[in-house]
Amino acid sequence: MLSTPNPRILLVDDHALFRTGLGMILREAFSGSTLLEAPSLAEAMKVEAAPLLDLILLDVHLPDANGLSLIKVLQERFGPVPVLMVSGSDDASQIAQAKDAGAVGYLSKSASGAQMVSTLRECLSGGQAFPSADYAPASAATVLVAQQNPVKPNERQLSILRLLGQGAPNKAIARQVGLSENDVRAEVSWLTEMLDATSRQQAYDVAVQRGWLAP
C-alpha cells in the first residue's frame, strides 16, 4: 500500500520524450498523482517545494551535473525525500554507486512499463528497489509503451527526425527547431535509442515505417 494515495513526484531528466512516456505511465497507474518535471539541476532547484514531495526520480546524466552526486543536494532543498535514480545504463557498478550514494532504488530506462510501476510502488511505500542479478531489461522502446502502442514524439521531435532524414547536422537542426546544439544532441540520442536505431538515418526510416512521417 502506498504511503500516500496521491503522490507528488519530481522527475529530473533532460529527455523530453522519456518524461512524456513516464507521465503517461504514472497517470494510468497512480490516477491522483502529480508529476513535476525539470530538465536540469538548475530547473529542479526552482520547483515549488510545498506541499512536500513524496519521491524524486533523478537521471544519472544531466546536462549540468552528475545525478549520483546530487542526492544530498536535492534532499537539502526538498527535505528527506527518497530519491530513485534513473539511467539508460544497466551497468552493475553504476547501480552499486547509486545505492552507496543513498538512493532508494535504480530504474533503467529500458525497463517495461510494468517494471517501472512496480519500482515506483515499492519506493513510494518506503521500500528499496534495485535490479536483481537476474534482471532482464526490455528493449528501449518498451519504456514508452502504453497499451502496447509506442508514444508518438511531439512536433519538435518529429521535425528533428525529419531533418535527420535529410542528413542535417546538429548545428543546422538546432537553428531549425530553436534548440541548443546540446539539446539537439540529447534529443537525437534519445530518439535513436527509443526507436532501437543504430544510426540517424535509421531513426528517420523507423519513424516513416511507423507512419509518424511521410516518406
Count of separate structural domains: 2
> Unreliable stretches, pLDDT < 50, 5 or more residues?
134-150
Strand percent estimate: 5-15%
Task: Tell the overall outline.
Answer: globular
CATH C-level label of the largest domain = Alpha Beta
Q: According to CATH, what is the topology of the largest domain?
A: Rossmann fold
SSE pattern? EHEHEEEHEHEHEEHHHH
Strand order of the largest sheet: 2-1-3-6-7
- What is the alpha-carbon Rg in Å? 17 Å
Range of helix content:
40-55%
Annotated CATH architecture of the largest domain: 3-Layer(aba) Sandwich
- State the major sheet: 5 strands, parallel
Structural class: alpha/beta
Number of strands: 9
Tally of contiguous helical segments? 9
The chain-level mean pLDDT equals 84
How would you name the CATH homologous superfamily of the largest domain?
Answer: Response regulator
How far apart the termini lie comes to 49 Å
Give a written overview of the molecule.
This protein is an alpha/beta fold and 215 residues long. Helix 7 (170-177) crosses helix 8. The chain has a five-stranded parallel beta sheet, sandwiched between helices. A two-stranded antiparallel ribbon has the order 4-5. The model is unreliable at 134-150 (pLDDT under 50). The termini are far apart. It has helices at residues 16-29, 41-44, 71-78, 92-100, 113-124, 155-165, 170-177, 181-194, 200-209; strands spanning 8-12, 34-38, 55-59, 61-62, 65-66, 83-87, 105-108, 145-146, 149-150. A hairpin with a 2-residue loop joins strand 4 (61-62) and strand 5. The protein folds into two domains: 8-146, Response regulator (Rossmann fold); 152-209, Orthogonal Bundle (Arc Repressor Mutant, subunit A), CATH 1.10.10.10. It contains nine helices and nine strands. The chain is globular. 42% of the residues lie in helices and 15% in strands.
